[in-house]
Structure to design on (234 residues):
């Protein structure tokens, strides 16, 4: 049983990493036979991994056609960004009113760990490093963890998971050399420690919005065909 769970987690993590790194492209079909061969696991393991990824918004399933990596689109990015701005800032407001000193210390610790990770992959500087992505996720989880409403926390996490693919693509396609992501995080933390609820919410709102704005402003849009653009209009 333990070995089976280990295989399941290993396959799930590898498949998720391949989607987020771009090795499996937005809109690409995910045939079971090919995935089983690539990850050396059974159909059941692959099916469970794809089901988990579909719950996170990274994979979609179509009747009679099977699974595919979620396509990237401008309308979806706009809807997703709007939802994140509403839900995450609301959840942060609750966290700041309810979290207390223990929560503040967890935010500080998560921010410190994030600052210790190189943001770009040393082997491919056009991609975010896996360690930074994990630390970034943990930092944003910590920011909202002080909220006492589990429904809000769950919805916020689901939306952030769905946004992860767009966030990964924001480095090669929407990265602006003058953007100070570390400074954005530090400003949010400072507002949290100052107890300034509205300023912290405004800074988080802007942090969420900026990645989308940069990606939407990029010239490179949908991926399946190298001659086409990465984010389609439909």
């Amino acid at each position: 049983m333990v070995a089976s769970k280990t295989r399941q987690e290993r396959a799930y993590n590898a498949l998720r990493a391949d989607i987020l790194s771009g090795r499996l492209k937005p809109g690409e079909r995910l045939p079971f036979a090919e995935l089983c061969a690539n990850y050396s696991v059974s159909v059941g393991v692959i099916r469970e991994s794809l089901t988990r990824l579909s719950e996170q918004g990274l994979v979609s399933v179509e009747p009679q056609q099977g699974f595919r990596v979620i396509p990237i689109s401008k309308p979806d990015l706009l809807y997703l960004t709007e939802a994140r701005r509403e839900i995450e800032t609301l959840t942060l407001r609750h966290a700041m009113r309810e979290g207390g000193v223990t929560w503040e210390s967890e935010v500080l610790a998560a921010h410190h760990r994030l600052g210790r990770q190189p943001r770009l992959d040393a082997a491919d500087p056009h991609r975010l490093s896996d360690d930074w992505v994990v630390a970034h996720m943990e930092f944003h989880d910590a920011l909202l963890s002080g909220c006492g409403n589990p429904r809000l926390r769950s919805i916020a996490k689901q939306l952030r998971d769905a946004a992860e693919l767009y966030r990964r693509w924001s480095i090669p396609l929407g990265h602006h050399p003058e953007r100070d992501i570390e400074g954005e995080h530090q400003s949010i933390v400072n507002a949290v420690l100052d107890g300034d609820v509205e300023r912290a919410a405004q800074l988080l709102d802007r942090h969420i919005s900026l990645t989308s704005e940069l990606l939407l402003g990029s010239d490179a849009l949908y991926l399946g065909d190298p001659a086409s653009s990465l984010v389609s209009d439909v």
